[in-house]
Design brief:
By secondary structure, this protein is an alpha/beta fold. It folds into 2 domains: 128 residues, 3-Layer(aba) Sandwich (Rossmann fold); 136 residues, Rossmann fold (3-Layer(aba) Sandwich), CATH 3.40.50.720. The chain has 10 helices and 12 strands. The strands form 2 sheets. Strands 2-1-3-5-6-4 form a 6-stranded mixed beta sheet, with helices on both faces. The protein has a 6-stranded parallel beta sheet with strand order 9-8-7-10-11-12, with helices on both faces. Helix 4 crosses helix 5, helix 4 packs across helix 9 and helix 9 crosses helix 10. The chain is globular, with a radius of gyration of 18 Å. 47% of the residues are buried. It binds NADP nicotinamide-adenine-dinucleotide phosphate (NAP). NADP nicotinamide-adenine-dinucleotide phosphate (NAP) binds next to helix 4, helix 5 and helix 9. The site of NADP nicotinamide-adenine-dinucleotide phosphate has 25 residues, from helix 4, helix 5 and helix 9.
């Protein structure tokens, strides 16, 4: 019988996940289908329990549901520490995972970037920053979170301190932090379509030995990545994080090696049209 998968969120109409996962299922000849459903926080519990009762293969969760899901599913230790769930699996009860951090780690590794021992500056302290901070600290990076609201950066640093070396601060120290960093990661919403002219950092703040990773993936080449290129820095696009976080979810649900290149082609094809 066909197995059904879905992404839940609100809004959800621009999600690239159905395209990406359906391309993967088709390439592997798997009798599975993936859909997008608009679900708000109030209906999340009914939606997850309903999907379980209907025999769904698994779910992805996106904004604004990732934190709310913690109250509904049984999270693994990483998702519980991060405080957010983006993948739900129904094989043994209703289990929750967070694959955002591993998606970011794999995007960096894919680009040939060394994480262990690197000085990483993450701008932003929202849901995505939390996942990435925990994962990179686990990999042995020295992480500083700089956020517009400093209290959120300091809270995240406190939460992640059990894992590794993480500090939190406001944006006023950004110039000095970037000057001595190896990797800069934008985890704010700045530069995201339709505000494509926005960038949290400009070329004059970037040095040529820096790796600049923008997790915003629409547009494919954000203003920040253009500024980084201008400064001669290496750039990493958020699209590979999108692909790898999806690939990890695929692996959790199916136990099958995900066809990453097919998933990447599907997403990039949609973003350049
Ligand atoms: P979020 O929880 O809403 O966090 C947004 C962050 O951006 C907060 O730290 C916020 O600071 C900061 N921010 C917003 N406007 C700002 C401004 N004008 N100046 C400075 N900082 C500002 O969002 P999220 O879920 O973490 O997602 C962040 C971005 O990552 C989104 O664009 C999302 O599409 C992208 N994303 C990409 C992937 C991928 O696979 N590539 C995965 C997840 C998310 P305050 O705390 O001060 O409000």
């Amino acid at each position: 019988m066909k197995r059904v998968f879905a992404v839940l969120g609100d809004p959800i109409e621009h999600s690239l996940s159905p395209l990406m996962h359906n391309a993967a299922f088709k390439a592997l000849g798997m009798d599975c289908t993936y859909h997008a459903f608009q679900v708000n926080k109030e209906n999340l519990k009914d939606a997850i329990k309903g999907a379980n009762a209907l025999g769904f293969g698994g779910l992805n969760l996106t904004v604004p549901l990732k934190e709310e899901a913690l109250k509904i599913v049984e999270p693994d230790s990483l998702a519980a520490a991060i405080g957010a769930v983006n993948t739900v699996d129904f094989k043994e009860g209703i289990r929750g995972y967070n694959t955002d951090g591993i998606g970011a780690e794999k995007a960096l590794i894919d680009a040939g970037v060394k994480i262990g021992g690197a000085k990483v500056v993450i701008i932003g302290a929202g849901g995505a920053a939390r996942g990435i901070c925990f994962q990179l600290a686990r990999c042995g990076a020295d992480v500083t979170i700089a956020n517009r609201t400093p209290e959120k950066a300091i809270q995240l640093a406190d939460d992640a301190a059990v894992i590794g070396n993480v500090k939190g601060c406001g944006l006023e120290q950004l110039d000095d932090l970037i000057a001595s960093a190896d990797i800069l990661i934008n985890c704010t919403t700045l530069g995201m379509y339709p505000h494509v002219e926005d960038s949290i950092v400009t070329a004059n703040q970037i040095h040529e030995d820096l790796v600049v990773f923008d997790i915003v993936y629409n547009p494919l080449k954000t203003k920040l990545l253009m500024e980084a290129e201008k400064a001669g820095a290496k750039t990493v696009s958020g699209v590979m994080m999108l692909v790898y976080q999806g690939a990890e979810a695929f692996r959790i649900w199916t136990g099958v090696e995900p066809p990453v290149e097919i998933m990447k082609k599907a997403v990039i094809g949609a973003l350049i049209t």
